[in-house]
Design brief:
The protein is α+β, with helices and mostly antiparallel strands and 178 residues long. The protein contains eight helices and seven strands, in the order H-E-H-E-H-E-E-E-H-E-E-H-H-H-H. The protein has a five-stranded mixed sheet with strand order 1-2-5-4-3.
């Protein structure tokens, strides 16, 4: 996992970011295979073409795309580094997602230190994504570690997210009682 070139760009901007997706899930104890690496930021400057000039000069392909009004994301920057590392920098749209980034904890991983959301925050992100596999991932994440603490962590922040995410959380908790 060589994301240091992307980290250097984000750090140079002063952008807060965190590892999300399958790699973050693996750090928290639930390994799931994926090729790409996902980072979350609330800093829209990453969508600027000029932000990635240095990576392009180093042979990276960079494709920034701003989300529209219907998109649940503020945007995404797809980066394919010269060594084949595939990175998506996801731009959050909601203030609660920025808070997830701020609460993320630094973790040493593959020779670098990167912030990783707490288990409860990963569950919130998965519920907000809302796809079938995302909901399965949320249930799997809830099953690992200290379930009572994780439920408490999610409950602490659930009112900050969209109402549809709250309903999915209630459904997930109800499925545990069956």
């Amino acid at each position: 996992m060589n994301i240091e070139p992307v980290q250097r760009v984000l750090d140079g901007l002063g952008a807060s970011y965190a590892l999300i997706g399958a790699h973050a899930m693996a750090v928290r104890g639930y390994p799931r295979f994926t090729v790409d690496i996902d980072l979350l930021t609330s800093d829209e400057r990453v969508l600027g073409e000029s932000t990635w000039g240095g990576l392009r000069r180093a042979g990276a392909a960079v494709d920034p795309r701003r989300g529209d009004a219907e998109d649940p994301l503020g945007g995404v920057v797809h980066i394919l580094l010269a060594d084949g590392t595939d990175v998506d920098v996801v731009v959050s749209k909601w203030s609660w997602e920025a808070q997830v980034i701020e609460r993320a904890e630094p973790v040493a991983l593959a020779g670098t230190v990167i912030r990783v959301p707490r288990l409860g925050d990963l569950i919130l992100l998965k519920l907000a994504a809302g796809g079938y596999m995302d909901l399965q991932d949320a249930a799997a994440l809830l099953a690992i570690g200290d379930k009572e603490r994780t439920i408490h962590d999610v409950q602490t922040y659930i009112d900050d997210v969209r109402p549809d995410v709250r309903a999915l959380w209630r459904d997930l908790l109800a499925s545990l009682e069956r």
